[in-house]
């Protein structure tokens, strides 16, 4: 599986490149995605957005999900791929 390192996202352009890579991953490897339809993806995105702070706690990352950043947005998108 493609390893996305969202900690390297600091600019809008970094985020754009991330989105391009995420799109490519979805097209080439849909089997890696739990939520492949837009409705399923958006539902998972919303649930993951609620739970993302626990992800940071579990992975011992000093990230405050209430302070939006390109990294937090990217992490939510990554989580929504597979969140149930």
Model regions low in confidence, pLDDT < 50 over at least 5 residues: none
Order of H and E elements: HHH
Q: How does the overall form come out from the CA principal axes? A: globular
Largest sheet: number of strands, sense, barrel closure: none
Helix content, binned percent:
55-70%
The residue-averaged pLDDT reads: 94
Query: What is the multimeric organization of the chains shown?
Result: single chain
- Tell me the Rg in angstroms: 12 Å
Helices, by number, come to 3
Name the beta content range. under 5%
Spatial separation of the terminal alpha carbons? 19 Å
Structural class based on helices, strands and sheet pairing: mainly alpha
Number of strands: 0
Short description:
This protein is an all-alpha fold.
Considering the chains and any ligands shown, give keywords for the structure:
mainly alpha, 3 helices, 84 residues, single chain
């Amino acid at each position: 599986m493609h390893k996305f390192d969202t900690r390297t996202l600091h600019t809008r352009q970094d985020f754009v490149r991330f989105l391009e890579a995420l799109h490519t991953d979805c097209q080439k490897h849909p089997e890696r995605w739990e939520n492949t339809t837009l409705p399923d993806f958006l539902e998972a995105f919303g649930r993951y957005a609620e739970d993302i702070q626990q992800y940071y706690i579990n992975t011992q990352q000093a990230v405050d999900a209430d302070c939006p950043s390109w990294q937090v947005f990217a992490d939510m998108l990554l989580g929504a791929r597979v969140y149930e």
